[in-house]
Amino acid sequence: MNNFSQLSKLTGAVALVLAGSCAFISQAYADDLYLGSNYIYPVSMIEKNGNTVNTVNEGAGPIGPSTFTGTILGNTFNNTPINPVYCVDLFHNVGVPSNWPTATVSTAGVINGLSVNNAGEVAYILDAIAPQATTTNQEAAVQALIWTTIYDGSNSPTTYVDGNKVTADSNASYYSSYTGYLAELGSHIAALDTVAWVTPDPVNKNVQGQAFALPAPVAPLGGGVPVSPVPVPAALFFVGPALVGLFGGLRRKSA
């Protein structure tokens, strides 16, 4: 099934690079990542290549309800509902609903073996801005902000070997929320290990990467070292209005 596949027309290999280098890549094999059938479509984006400008419609996160089984930074998930899952890269496909029993998780901003451009900013978006999104337009704005943060092409000329960049659509209904979130993002960054950076298929590396915020550590009573809690029930995460579930999977069309 298709979602962001048409952007694969961009020629050459796409290298997602951080402004700074990661000292190490922390990965652990997950028992299971399940992606639910709810998502947003369309999220309108603008693709630019030189003087060519295309409007493209994307299927996007938050994907849910989604669950995870495995251990991340000592926090054990047992078929546990997780924070809404957002799409990271535009150059692969992912089917929904779908199960990924051998997914790998990085806590160093790595997807499909490549470092995510501006991963610290993306971590801040997922940690601080995404929880504010309770409407479809706001959630679309979060997804657009993630993509433009990664693919604006401003920080690394190697991000687009053919000069392409992706920006938000100023005519889209999400745009006012997007500009507000963009201003809030500013130059903020968050620690990369506050986010699970998921590679669903680590063998072929041809499935779209996903990311979700990890539960924040809670300080124990009486002081001491903060501990990561057992993730809370789904009802506390999925508080926005239900999105329409399309069991055929994420689909993307060019306008």
UniProtKB/TrEMBL annotation:
Entry keyword annotation includes Membrane: yes
Keywords: Membrane, Signal, Transmembrane, Transmembrane helix
Transmembrane residue ranges: 230-250
Signal peptide residues on this chain, from the entry's feature table: 1-30
Record's protein name: Uncharacterized protein
